[in-house]
Amino acid sequence: MGIAEKKIGLAVVTGASSGIGFELAKIAAAKGYDLIIAADEEEIKDAAAVLRRMGANVDALVADLSTLEGVDRLAECIEADGRSVDLLLANAGRGLGKGFLDQEFAEARRVIETNVLGTVYLIHQVGSQMRTRGAGRILITGSIAGFIPGSYQAIYNGTKAFLNSFSFALRNELQDTGVTVTCLMPGPTDTRFFERADMLDTDIGQSEKDDPADVAKVGFDAMMDGEGDVVAGWKNKFQAAVANLTPASVLAAQHAKMAAPGTAKS
Fold first, then answer.
1. Which candidate among 71, 97, 200, 216 keeps its CA 20 to 30 Å from the CA of 30?
2. Which neighbouring-strand residues pair with 183?
3. Could you tell me the residue ranges of all domains in the chain?
4. Kind of pairing between the strands at 136-141 and 229-231
5. Of residues 26, 33, 156, 209, which has the active-site annotation?
6. Is 160 known to be catalytic?
7. Whole-model pTM above 0.85?
């Protein structure tokens, strides 16, 4: 069956050109939501074409969401639509491998600005409107990486630790307002993340990964149910539980074995 004839609201999805974000957008489209999707690459237009073939009304925006200006452009697109945002799926993110001192600082800074600055700025704008209206759902893509000191992925894991913590705090602040906040915490997922992060020569980059469609469904369902957080996949649930009981120094050493350059098994 196609998507519902009656449009039931507006969903905004960032990082929707591929991977988990694209799958989240597909689920929203199939459930009858109109869409505003954004990413920092032209492929967002291809994603929009697929979603339109599903029957969805879609506006696609190419914008650098690591900058305040890029987020402002998205906010202007939302305002031009003239409707309130029912679902905000803040999924845009960026990774970076190798040792911190071996990274170009401009690249490390962009990871921080995409994952943290751009995400919280967008949530501040859209979340304020939701609170005023007394309704809305926010899904933040965190990660189980946020539970682990990420040797050779230190900036990325640090930003996800921030998002995991931020989501719980924001959820508490918004209780009884009609606005829910859910944190999706996936593990390694079969997307272009490890290619873009220059981590294909690592053990984790070559390991078996979760299906982004499965991860997206877990997160979307949790958001619609008003859950506070969800870890996608039983292996990741186990890893998250173990991480809470393991000394940080041990976790850092374990992560190094997976993420250090040249650790990929032949």
1. 71
2. 140, 229
3. 9-259
4. unpaired
5. 156
6. yes
7. yes
